[in-house]
Design brief:
The chain has one domain. 85% of the residues lie in helices and 0% in strands. Helix 5 crosses helix 9. The longest helix has 31 residues.
C-alpha cells in the first residue's frame, strides 16, 4: 500500500467518523488544531514553547470543538427558518455567533496567563460570577471583572473584523460546496492559520492586561 492509498483510507475512515459521530469528530479534530496553533503562536512570540500552556489548551480543546460544531448548527437553523442561501446562513449563523465564541477563547487565555494555566482557577473565574449573592448590579460587576476585564479590546476588535470579512466568505463557500458531515472539520482545519493568529492576539493582549494591572 503506497502513501496515497494510506491517506485515502484514513480520509475515508475520518469521513465515516464525521458522518456517524459528528460531535466526536469535531472534538477530536479540535484536539489537534488548537494545541498545534497554540504552540505555533508561542514560537512566533517567545521563540519557545510553554508546554503547560499547550496542555491547558489541549484540556479545553474538546469544548472548542463542540463549540465549532454548535456554530455550524446555527447555520442550519438559519437555513430552516430564515433563508437557505449560503451567504445568509454564514452571516446570521456561525459568523454572527463566532464573536461571543471568540470572547470565551480570549477570556480563557487571559485567565490562564494570570493563573499559570490552572484549570481550577479558570473554573473559579466563571463560578464566581454566579456563586455570590446580591442585587443584579452585583452580578453585573462580577461579570465585568471576570469577563469584560479579561478581554483585550484592540485584539478582540481585530478578530471581529476578520470574522465578518474573511470567515464570512469561507463559511459561504463551506455551506455551498462541502458535504454536511465535513463542514465542521473543514472549518476546524481551515482555522489552523486563523487559530495561530487568534492565539497570537490573545497571548499578547492578555499580557497587556496583566501588565497594565501590575
Amino acid at each position: 500500500m503506497d502513501l496515497g492509498e494510506t491517506v485515502g483510507y484514513i480520509f475515508q475512515g475520518y469521513s465515516l467518523l464525521q458522518k456517524e459521530y459528528p460531535v466526536l469528530g469535531a472534538m477530536i479534530t479540535a484536539e489537534v488544531i488548537f494545541p498545534l496553533s497554540d504552540a505555533a503562536s508561542q514560537i512566533i512570540t517567545d521563540k519557545k514553547i510553554n508546554w503547560k500552556k499547550v496542555k491547558y489548551t489541549a484540556a479545553l480543546a474538546p469544548i472548542y470543538g463542540l463549540g465549532t460544531y454548535g456554530l455550524l448548527e446555527t447555520g442550519d437553523i438559519v437555513g430552516k427558518y430564515v433563508s437557505n442561501h449560503s451567504l445568509v446562513k454564514a452571516a446570521l449563523g456561525p459568523n454572527l455567533f463566532a464573536n461571543p465564541y471568540n470572547l470565551f477563547f480570549f477570556v480563557n487565555n487571559t485567565v490562564g496567563e494570570k493563573s499559570n494555566y490552572n484549570l481550577k482557577a479558570l473554573a473559579r473565574n466563571y463560578g464566581q460570577i454566579v456563586s455570590g449573592k446580591g442585587e443584579i448590579s452585583d452580578y453585573l460587576r462580577r461579570f465585568e471583572k471576570n469577563i469584560i476585564e479579561n478581554i483585550p479590546p484592540r485584539e478582540y476588535i481585530k478578530s471581529v473584523v476578520a470574522v465578518t470579512t474573511v470567515w464570512n466568505g469561507f463559511q459561504w463557500f463551506n455551506y455551498s460546496n462541502t458535504p454536511k458531515e465535513l463542514q465542521a472539520p473543514a472549518t476546524l482545519a481551515a482555522s489552523l492559520i486563523w487559530m495561530v493568529l487568534l492565539s497570537l492576539w490573545s497571548l499578547k493582549g492578555g499580557r497587556k492586561i496583566i501588565k497594565k494591572k501590575d
